[in-house]
Amino acid sequence: MSVESTPVGSTLNENFESLMREDRVFPPPAAFAARARIGSEAEYERMYKRSIEAPEEFWAEAAAELEWFTPWTKVLEGSGPHAKWFTGGKLNLSHNCVDRHAKAARKDKVALLWEGEPGEVRRLTFAELHVEVQKFANVLKSLGVKKGDRVAVYMGMSPELAIALLACARIGAVHSVIFGGFAAHAISDRVNDSDCQVIVTQDLSYRRGSEVKLKKIVDEALEKCPGVRKVIVYQRAPSATVAMKEGRDFWWHEAMAAAAADCSAEPMDAEDPLYILYTSGTTGKPKGLVHTTGGYSVQTYLTSKYIFDLQDEDVYWCTADIGWVTGHSYVVYGPLQNGATVMMYEGAPNWPENDRFWKIVDDHKVTVFYTAPTAIRAFIKWGNDWVHKHSLASLRLLGTVGEPINPEAWMWYHREIGKERCPIVDTWWQTETGAILIAPIPGAVATKPGSATRPFFGVVPEIVTKEGDPVPAGQGGLLVIKKPWPSLARTIWGDAERYEQAYFSEIPGIYFTGDGARRDADGYYWLMGRVDDVINVSGHRLGTMEIESALVAHSKVAEAAVVGRPCEMKGQAIAAFVTLEEGYEPSEELKQELRQWVAKEIGGLARPDDMRFTQMLPKTRSGKIMRRLLRELATTGEVKGDTTTLEDFGVLAKLKENEE
Ligand code: ATP
Ligand code: MG
C-alpha cells in the first residue's frame, strides 16, 4: 500500500510558551445578534452546559431534526476509538440533503448555484437535484455498484461532483474523492489503497484560464489500477475531446439519458461507512480516514446550522474544493441538510482578474462566505483596490478554516470584507473530526482575532502535557478532545491499528489532535501550530503561529513560515521564510528590520536567526504551509519527505536556489 500514514506526535513536546498578546475583542454586532439563531452568550452557555451534562439527550434532539427510517436504540455506545453513535438507527444522508427538501416547501428553492470559470451560471432547485441524484444513482447501479463498494471521484468543481457524491450516499456506495488537482500517481495510490472499482471523472475543468485535462490524467493513473472496471466521464467542454475506452468508459450524459428517474434511498445503518477521504498531508503521508453515516450527518447538520447561522434566505458560499473535507462537510452535506442555497464556483480566485470572488459575491448576493487564511493573505497581497470595486453589501457572516489565521489577516478580513459588520467564525477542525469542533457561535460569542474561540456543543477540548495532565490557563500544550463526538472518523481505511496508534495512544483513550494550543482566562482557544513543528530555543518551546503572526503584522510582509533548525548553542535556531507585499524588495536592511520587529513585538527569544525571502512558500494543495519541507531544507539543504500533496513543485527548487 503506497498511501499510508505516519504516526503523528512522534516528536511530541510538552508545554509551549506563548509570547503573543492579543487583546482586541469584538462582540457580536447587535444587528446580527438580533436575528441570529442563537443571539446571546447566555443562550450559548446554557446549550453548551446541557450538551456536556446530558450529551445523549442533546445529540438525540439534534438527530431528531433529521429523518430516520428506523430510530436508533442507543445514542452513544463505547468510548475513545470505539465510540459508536445512534446504533440501530437507519437513515440516508442523500435523503436528508435532497428528498427531505424536495418533497416539501423548498422544492423550488435553489439548492446548487454554480458559476463556471468562463462565466456560465447554472441553478438546480432541490426538486431538480433530486431527479439528477436519483438518475445518477441508477447509473451507478447499472454499472454494478453495490452498497459498500468504493467509488473514486476525480472531478472539477461542477454540480455533477456534488451529484456524484449524493448518488453514492444514496445507494450506500463509499465515495473516495480525490482532489482534481492531483497528478496521476496520487490518483492511483488512492484508488488502489481503497480498492475502487469505478471512477467518476470529467473530460476537463477550467482553472485560471486553462484546461485541466482530468480524463487524460485518469487514463494515465489507471495504467496502475488493475481493479478499476468502469469510468464515467462527465462532459464539461462544449464538445467531446477525450479518448474513450470501449467497454470501460461511459459518458455521463448518455448514461443519464438512459437512466430511470427514481431510485429510493438505501436505509443505511448509522455506523455504515459513508466515505473515505485522505488528509492534506501537511505533516506527513496522507491518511485515508473513514467517516460513517449517522454521527457525521447529525454533526455536519448541526454545526452548519449554528456556526453559519443558516437561515432560509441565505446564499452560502464555502470556497473550499470538494476534494477536501471542508468541501464534503461544508459545501455538500452540512448546508444541504439545512436546505441552504449553496454557491459553487469552478475556478481560480484571480481569473480573469484578482476580484473574481468579490464579483461573485455581488452578482449572486452571497450572504455567508467561508474561506481559508491562505486565500485571505493572497487578497491582502493583491491590494484593496480589487475589493473596493465591489459593494459586498449582501455579506452578513464570514468564516475561515484550514490554518491559524494571523491576527492582522483577521483584522483585514473584518475591515475590508466584513466592513466591520460581519462576525468572523474561525473554525478549527480536521479531516478526522468530520465537523467543526471549536468556533464561535456568531450571534453569541465575542471574537478575538486569531482565536477559534470556544467549543461547539458537546465538544470538550483540553490543553494537556504529554503525560495528559491539564496545563494552567494561558500556557500552551497539546490540544486533546476528551469526550466522544458524533462525527469522528471511525478508522483509517484498512488500518485500524494505525488509527488507534495515531489518535488514541499518545494519551491513552483520549483523542490527540496533533495541534498545540492554549486556552486563555476567558476559556478561548488559540491554536499555536502543529506539535511536530514546535521550535525549541534554549529550552523554550515555541509554536510557529505566534512568530509567523508577528512577521505578518509587519506592513511589508505578506506571508511567513518559521521552522527550527539544529543549532549547537541554542538547541534550535529559528529560520524564517518570508514573502513580501507587492512593491517591496528583499534587502539586508529589511532582514535586520524584520528580526528587530519580531523581537520588539513578542520578545528577543523569538527573534529569527535566519531570514530568507522567497516568492512563494511550499503549501499543500489545500493551501497549508508545509513547514516540514522547510525544516528539512533548512536543516539538510534537501527534501526527502513525502511531497505528493505539494501544490507547486517549482517552489522547492526555487527555495534551494535561494539558499545562501
Ligand atoms: P495531515 O494530517 O496529513 O498532516 P492536515 O492536518 O493538514 O494534513 P487537514 O485535516 O486538512 O489535514 O487539516 C487539519 C489541520 O488544519 C488541523 O489539525 C490544524 O492544524 C489546521 N487547522 C484547521 N483549521 C484551523 C483553524 N481554524 N485554526 C488553526 N488551525 C487549523
Ligand atoms: Mg492532520
Describe the model.
- With 660 residues, the chain is an alpha/beta fold.
- It has 2 domains: 377 residues, Rossmann fold, CATH 3.40.50; 120 residues, 2-Layer Sandwich (GMP Synthetase, Chain A, domain 3), CATH 3.30.300.30.
- The strands form 8 sheets. An 8-stranded mixed β-sheet has the order 12-11-8-6-7-14-15-23, sandwiched between helices. Strands 5-4-17-16-18-19-20 form a 7-stranded mixed β-sheet, sandwiched between helices. Strands 21-22-24-25 form a 4-stranded antiparallel β-sheet.
- Strand 1 and strand 2 form a beta hairpin.
- The longest helix has 17 residues.
- It is globular, with a radius of gyration of 24 Å.
- The N terminus is likely disordered.
- The chain binds adenosine-5'-triphosphate (ATP) and magnesium ion.
- The site of magnesium ion has 4 residues, from loops.
- Its cofactor is Mg(2+).
- One of its GO terms (molecular function) is metal ion binding.
- Keywords: Acetylation, ATP-binding, Ligase, Magnesium, Metal-binding, Nucleotide-binding.
- Its EC number is 6.2.1.1.
- It is an enzyme of class 6 (ligase).
